[in-house]
Every structure is written in structure tokens, then in C-alpha cells.
Amino acid sequence: METTSDEIKILDFWISPFCMRVKIALEEKGITEYECLQEDPYVHKTVLLREMNPVHNRLPVLIHNGKPICESLIIVEYIDEVWKDNSSMLLPVDPFLKSRARFLAHFIDTKLMSVGMKLSRAKGEAEIAKKEFIECLKLLEAELGDKPYFGGNNFGYLDIALIPDYSWFYTYETCAQFSIQAECPELIAWANRCMQRPSVQRSLPNPVQVYNYVLERNRNLGLA
Where does the chain show beta strands of DSSP type E? Predict the structure, then answer.
């Protein structure tokens, strides 16, 4: 269980789905006493960020009792192992299911979120990016099947990997003019179930705030 000797800080960027994962994982483990140190890597990378993640200078970073852990999925696994007695494990125990969850989380990072960024900056390649994005979501929807969560009845690792992107769905839909609900209704039903969890509610920002931030960023970059 969480003890008063644990000092937990997150180098955080409120709009980052990767950072949201860390907060959800901590909350799912019953860890509610942590400090979020807000960064904006688009504006300035602090000395602390460069010290804690000298390899990539990238968020998020979990600082646990002074020791930095980097990369969101690695951080989620770290949280799962360190606080393994706090609740059910986030990663599946079965080796095949564990490897499958890791594979699909990697797919979310390398494909889904990459295409999503194209949608949020949509200009000439919007239609191509939209098609690729929907294909990615349909693949994940098929993986979900008729289960409540990707881990079956248990909310876990793959759910944590994907649900932060839900806070960006409004931005993607508005920028590229399409409906994820119309294309992937079962995935949206899953997202709505996830949003009922206190850990998710406390960790995800308002989708309209995300859109307004992206709109302003696009204007500054000459993309709007």
C-alpha cells in the first residue's frame, strides 16, 4: 500500500495522452498523493526535464523517491510492479495475453497516435489520415469484441494505453469532420464505461479545452 515515505512526482503536460496514462495507473493502484509538475515542451523544456530524461527530453517522467522512470508504458508497468499488492494487476498474468497487450499498446503509440496528430493538423492529407485512423480504431474495436474492457472484466494495461486518446476524439472529429461514434460505436461504448471510473475522470481533461489548445497551437504554427 501507499506509504508516507513515498515521494511521487510526475513531470506532466496536461494535454498529453501519455502523461494521462501515468495518472490513471497511479489512481487505479490507490496512489492519490502525488505532485504534478506542469511542463509545456512546445514552449520550453525545463532543466529538471533534461536532468530526469537526458536521453529524449520527453514527457512523462515519474520521479519515485528521487529516481526517474521514463516512457509512459514503461512507467505503467513500473507502477503495476511496485504497487502489486494494492489491487489486481494491470497487465495480464498469462504470458500470451501479456505479450498481446504490449503489442497493441505499441501499435497505439506508433500508429494510432501518429495518425491522430495528422488529423489534428488536418489540411491536404485529411482524408487519407481519416481513413487510416478509422482502420486503426476498427482493429482495436475487433480486439475488444464483446468484452467490457480489453482485459475482460478487469480494467487494465491496454485500457490505460488507449483511453487517454478519448479526450482528443472531439479534436480529431472537429478538425477532420467525421464521427467516431458512427464508425466505431462499440469502442465509444467502451470509452463511456471507462469514463465512469474515478481514475479516468480525474486524469482526462475536458475535450473542448483540448480542442481550443490545439486550435491555438495550429494558428501559431500557421496550420489553421
Answer: 8-12, 35-38, 61-64, 67-70
pTM of the model: 0.95
Nearest to 22 by CA among 72, 68, 70: 72
Which segments of 151-184 does DSSP mark as H helices, in order? 157-162, 166-176, 180-183
* 216 phi and psi angles, rounded to 5 deg: -65, -40
**pLDDT, tens digit, for every residue of 33-57?**
999 999 999 889 999 999 999 999 9
Q: Which helix (H) or strand (E) holds 130?
A: helix 126-144
CA dihedral 42, 45, 49, 54 (to 10 degrees): 100
Domains of the chain: 8-82 (3.40.30.10), 95-220 (1.20.1050.10)
Summarize pLDDT for 92-141 with one digit per residue, the tens.
Answer: 999 999 999 999 999 999 999 999 998 988 665 678 899 999 999 999 99
For residues 124 and 115, give the distance between their C-alpha atoms in angstroms, rounded to a whole number: 14
The sheet with strand 35-38 has its strands ordered as 35-38, 8-12, 61-64, 67-70
Q: Which of 103, 125, 129 is nearest to 115 (CA)?
A: 129
> What angle is formed at CA 153 by the lines to CA 152 and CA 154, rounded to 5 degrees?
90
